[in-house]
Amino acid sequence: MSSIYQKYDDEIGKKNCDYNQLEKEMLNQHWQQDPELAWRLASIVYYKCLNLSNDEEIKLKTIESLRYAEKSIELFTKQQNESVGGGDGNIFYAYKWSAMAHGRLALFEMANVERKILYTANFLQYLDKCLQQQEKQKESNQKITNDHLVLFMQGRFQLALSMLSEDEQKIFQKRLGPNVVIPKLNLLDGESKLRRSIELQPDFIDNYITLAYLLIKEHKILDAKQIIEKGLQQQCCNKSDELIRQELLKIKETLG
To answer: Residue 155: CB partners within 8 Å, gap ≥ 6?
Structure first.
């Protein structure tokens, strides 16, 4: 079984990764009983979303990705309960892809406020679980401690928070309930997280558009222009990247 894990690790980072073939090979394994396969399937399906242009198709595929992530969490939790040591294994990745999916789904819910709040609450809870795992494994697993997507999610949420007034943040916190705590608005911390994410994964174009908007919020126009230029230098690998590139060009034109 470890060979299929290795194939995933070897292929997933490639620009020309054949997600369909990789998904097919994963589905031919006993993924329903294997949390490692389940979270890998969650990531593959999520990446496939990036080549879709229809919002409804993207939403459905993201829900599919979420289901794989939830299955992985379920299986990891079962393993922990049954094992003597209660080890965490790679549950971090199951939490990460669950957070990624919930975050994306929250962005799609513009009309249904209750559903948007539910997805946001779940996003924050799973992101917090990721951070807990990073703290727990910081001495033994540097790979998860320096995960660029977790840093991106933290920075992206700071940008989302910056678009709300203090009163709106209080209302939002009230709607989320007492069990979900909204991180405090800290644009400098969000900027730092996004810059670190760029260091770790320079070709992840989502970081550049998010950081550009955050810098504009901070009135750091020159810095924003520099980040936009760096973002435009990145190769577009899917339709999502192409849309972000178009948006970067629009911001560049607006800033002059």
So the answer is: 190, 191, 193, 194, 197, 207, 210, 211, 214
Convert the pLDDT of each residue in 65-85 to its tens digit.
999 999 999 999 998 877 755
Whether the CB-CB separation of 185 and 157 falls below 8 Å is answered with no
H helix runs in 83-186, sequence order: 91-108, 113-136, 142-145, 148-162, 166-176
The angle at the Cα of 249, spanning 245 to 250, to the nearest 5 degrees, equals: 115
Could you tell me which of 180, 205, 212, 207 has the C-alpha nearest to residue 193?
A: 207
Burial of 175 (0-12, 13-18, 19+ CB in 10 A): middle
Neighbours of 150 (CB within 10 A): 23
One-letter amino acid of 141: N
Which runs of consecutive H residues, i.e. helices, occur in the chain?
2-11, 19-27, 35-49, 55-82, 91-108, 113-136, 142-145, 148-162, 166-176, 187-200, 205-217, 221-232, 239-255
pTM of the model: 0.93
CA atoms within 13 A on the CB side of 123: 23
| Angle ∠(213,219,224) on CA atoms, nearest 5 | 45
Two structure tokens written together for 95? 């939490």
Over residues 1-23, the pLDDT tens digits come to 578 888 898 898 787 889 999 99
Of 24, 28, 22, nearest to 8 by C-alpha is: 22
